[in-house]
Design brief:
Structural class: alpha/beta
Order of helices and strands: EHEHEHEHHEHEHHEEHEEEHEHEHHEEHH
Largest sheet: 9 strands, mixed
Number of strands: 15
Length: about 375
Amino acid sequence: MAGIYIHIPFCKQACFYCDFHFSTSLKKKEEMLHCLKKEIALRKEELKGEKVETIYFGGGTPSVLNTSEIDKLIATVYHHFDVVENPEVTLEANPDDLSEEKIVELSKTVINRLSIGVQSFFEKDLKLMNRAHNASEAKKCLEIATQYFDNISVDLIYGIPDCANKEWEENIKTALDFGISHISSYALTVEPKTALESLIAKGKIKNVDDVKAEEQFQILTKTLKKEGFIHYELSNFGKENYFSKNNSSYWLGKSYLGIGPSAHSFNGKQRSWNVRNNTHYIKAILEDKLPIERETLSKTDRYNEYVMTGLRTVWGVSLEKIKKDFGDDFLNYLEKLSNKFIIEDLLYIENKTLKTTQKGKFLADGIASDLFKLN
């Protein structure tokens, strides 16, 4: 089973914290849509023999497209690939794009999952992040969307400067009050060359507080556990049968094809990525060229990736898989280095699987990097 990710590189405005690839100009939208369809056709052989079980529209802001434009991209995928009978089809959307009319239209397509970028239900937080929507739009869109879609994920950001723990608890409660069955939640991160980095450097916005971010992460995990959510990946919480199949495929090492500028692909042994520039992407595709760079993963790369993704998830790192796929040297190396984290109550072993403790979850990426092997 495989997945297809389609990157829509347009946004109405730039959020201060975002370092994803997008443009706030829609001038090249028609050309881009033509090229996305063309790239799908050019790469139709890449998932030969595999069924496509997920189609995911990410970005950018895919909800800037109208329903007809989204439908044509989905039809192109169906035309060139073997899609399972009931695939998970996700559209990332911003609340300001989701009018009742648009939600009703989307509900009549094969899209069966919405991932809504709320981030916060507080006006001051949304202004600080330069989000395009306001708090009332966020609530209104969830009120309507939950009438037409059963499978909805909400994005929330914690560790926002001046967002008190009480307000963070209110954010979580508000999402839960709408009966949401999946929450993706991330710490506000200061990425290089973003507006947020510049505003913090100039003293216009307070720097993020790692201690407060960890407190709010622990509040999140405890609250959602009580509400019957499974913390199945570091940033993702779902009720049973509501895990994101698309995201889970990344963490479980399944094949996926990334369409569009900056999109990444993986086939088990090789990783590839498209050029991160709309003009260069369009020019190449119009010339029937794929603007792709490829990297063949070494045994060490594959071990490091498995440790990183495994420690982020509820499935953990199977010691038997390490032995089978990588050999005794890698297993001995992992066991030796992980021992210190087990003593510190950050990792534990259950059924021959290495996992993070509740205390270790927030630090999963850092722990994984300490367990990496160098090429």
